[in-house]
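Translate sequence into structure tokens.
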Amino acid sequence: MSDIVSYFENISSLHRGAILAGGIAFFWLLESFKPLFTFDYNKWHHAWINIFFTLTTILVNFSMAFLLLLTAQWVSDNEFGIIQWLPNLYFLTYVVLGVALLDLIGAYLPHFLEHRIKFFWKFHLVHHTDTWVDTTTANRHHPGESVIRFVFTLIGVIIVGAPMWMVFLYQSLSVVFSQFNHANLNIPAKLDKWLSYIIISPDMHKIHHHYQLPYTDSNYGNILSIWDRLFGTFMYMKRENIVYGIDTHMDEKENNNLANLIKLPFQGYRPPPKN
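Result follows.
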């Protein structure tokens, strides 16, 4: 474990970028060989739009990274936060608890609130307008949403008391898990279900991308499935019944127009239709 700590204490921007790019490339190839759904779309054009938002996410996170570094250093120096106040634990327990709490505060909580607060939802909507969900969808976030999520990660670091190496470990896992559970992979249904008892499996997350309520407002997790099960936001439906998108914005031309997607949060709010 000391090797892992050492690696993430000294991880370079190049390595972090390689994890992101390598994950996209790996799942992109994998889903090409055995897709869950066969889409009638231009895979490269679709990817280009989502990669644009991936790049804006990187820019937002890198431009504010100094805040994360300062915060993580402060909680470590002042022994502030949940895992700093706990008695001595086995190191693995310490790591699992820290990452799990960062997953709760930095991923589950903002995602839940993005579906409850109209201002947040209008930014998150860009993610849900994708009607061809694949691994590139994982980073399809409007820059405004990237800022929102960064703030919650910052709050998570303070509450958890996470040192910087743990933050980098969490972020690396978060990126890979998000690419995995968005990937258009045809995993055996029984295996996917067993995985969903521990982590957010592809089928579990794809239910969240179903175009209608109440499924849209479910399965908010990113790494661990415990939070959805604990807080009553877990839902199940058969994969063959999933229809991607969001029922307020089903025009494919709008949803694949980059200029429109950038302006989307500043357009009028469309309430969900009554089913």
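Note: Residues 2-187 form one domain.
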